[in-house]
Amino acid sequence: MAEQLDNYDQFKRDQWQTLFDAESVPLDEIDLEQIRSLNDRISLDDVREIYMPLVHYILLKYRDFQRANDERSDFLRVSHRHVPFLIGIAGSVAVGKSTTARLLALLLRHLYPQLKVQQITTDGFLYPNAVLEAKGIADDKGFPDSYDMPRLIQFLNDVKQSKPHVQAPKYSHQVYDVIPNEYDEIDQPDILIVEGINVLQLPSQAEIFVSDFFDFSLYVDADPQLVEHWFLERFNILLNSAFNDPTNFYHELATGSREDAFLYARQVWDDVDLRNLKAYILPTRNRANVILHKVRHHTIDAVYLRKY
Ligand SMILES: Nc1ncnc2c1ncn2[C@@H]1O[C@H](COP(=O)(O)OP(=O)(O)O)[C@@H](O)[C@H]1O
Ligand SMILES: CC(C)(COP(=O)(O)O)[C@@H](O)C(=O)NCCC(=O)O
After folding, report:
1. Which ligand is nearest to the CA of 199?
2. Which residues contact 82 (CB under 8 A, 6 or more apart)?
3. Can you tell me the distance from the alpha carbon of 249 to that of 283, in angstroms, rounded to the nearest whole number?
4. What residues does the Phosphoribulokinase/uridine kinase domain cover (predicted)?
5. Residues above pLDDT 90, as percent of the chain
6. CB of 280 within 8 A of CB of 271?
7. pLDDT score for 23
C-alpha cells in the first residue's frame, strides 16, 4: 500500500508471523486436505505465517466480546444471553474475500471445535437480475443500490438476536443471479463471518449500517491491476465449467471465441467492478479493524491493525 495509514500499526510479514508461536499448533495437525479442497492454490506458508496469528487475534477479540456481554448482563441483573460474534470481510470483487472467509472458518473450527462457526456472502442480498433491470441499474450489479439493504439489516438483526433457522438468500456466479427459494440456514452460531463488497459501506439515507453489527472486520486489499488478473483467472475457471452446461450464464461465451470472451470480461472489469472498487469499496478500507495486503499469487506481504 503506497499511502500511510496513521490509524494502523503496520506489520511486515516477517514481523507478523512472530506474534504467534506456530510451532504450538503444527500445521500438519490441521487437515491439509481440507485446505486443499477449499482451494489448492492457497499457500500453506500464508496459512502458517499469516492466518494462524490472525485467527488467534480474532479469538482474543471474541473472548473480550463475550466478557463484555456477560458484564453487561450482570450489571442489568439479567441472565447471560447468547450473542453471535459477527466478522465482516470487505474488499474488491475477486480479491479473495470468500476464499479468506472459508479459510478463517475452517481454521476457527479446527482450532476451536466447540465453537459453531458459519459464513454467508452478501451476494445473496443483491436484487434479482429482473429487479435490477426494472430499476434501470442492470449494469450496476454490486453497487450500493443493487442490494436489498433493509432485508440484509433484518437478517443481521435476527442473527444477532440469536433467532434459530435464519435464512440467507443465495447467489450463484454460474447462473449470474440470485437463486429463488434457496437459502443458507444460519442457526445460532457463536461466530458468523459475513463477506461482501458492501459490508463496510455507509449508504447516506440509512439509519443503521451493516457494519454496526460487526464485532470485528477485515479488508482484503491489493493493487487493482492484480485484482483484475485474479478476476480474469476466475472468469477463465467459470468459462471452463460452463462449456458443457447450457444453463450456465457463461455457456455462450464459453463456446465462442476465447479472445472475444476475454474482451468482454475486461470490459466488465473496467466498466463495472473497477468503477465500483474506486467509487464505493476502496473508500471503506480505512474502517476495517484489519487490512490484509496481498501481492502476486495472493501472497500477503503486510498486515495492518487499526489502533483506534
Ligand atoms: N489465498 C488465495 N490463494 C490462491 N488463490 C486465491 C486465494 N484467494 C482467492 N483466490 C482465487 O482468486 C479468485 C477470486 O477469489 P474469490 O474468493 O472468489 O474472491 P471474492 O470472493 O473476493 O470475489 C478465485 O479464482 C480464487 O480461487
Ligand atoms: C456478484 C458480485 C457483485 C459480487 O462479487 P464477489 O465479491 O462475490 O466476487 C460480482 O461478482 C458481480 O457480478 N459484479 C458485476 C459485474 C461482473 O463482474 O459480472
Report:
1. 2
2. 162, 188, 190
3. 31
4. 86-231
5. 83
6. no
7. 67
Write out the three cell numbers for 85.
Answer: 460474534
User: What region, left, alpha or beta, does residue 94 occupy, with left being phi > 0 and alpha being psi -120 to 50 degrees?
Assistant: left
* 3-state secondary structure (DSSP) of residue 300: strand
C-alpha of residue 23 to centroid of ligand 1, in Å: 27
238 Cα: distance to centroid of ligand 1 (angstroms)? 13
Pocket test for ligand 2, best of 93, 170, 177, 236 (most atoms within 8 A of CB): 93
Which of the ligands is closest to the CA of residue 89? 1
Pocket test for ligand 2, best of 122, 123, 125, 267 (most atoms within 8 A of CB): 123
CA distance 249 to 174: 6
Q: What CA dihedral angle connects 19, 23, 29 and 34, to 10 degrees?
A: 40
Residue 29: predicted pLDDT: 62
What superfamily would CATH give domain 8-223+288-306? P-loop containing nucleotide triphosphate hydrolases (3.40.50.300)
Task: Give the pairing type, strands 166-172 and 8-12.
Answer: unpaired
ipTM (interface pTM): 0.98
pTM (two decimals): 0.96
Ligand 2 lined by 206 (C-beta under 6 Å): no
**Distances, alpha carbon 290 to alpha carbons 37, 175, 191, 266, 277, in Å:** 26, 33, 17, 30, 18
Q: How far is the C-alpha of 165 from the C-alpha of 144, rounded, in Å?
A: 27
Distance in angstroms (rounded) separating the CA atoms of residues 142 and 125: 10
Q: Determine the Cα–Cα distance for residues 201 and 125; give it in Å rounded to an integer.
A: 14
Cα–Cα distance, 220 to 223 (Å, whole number): 11
Q: Which residues of the chain have pLDDT under 70?
A: 1-4, 22-31
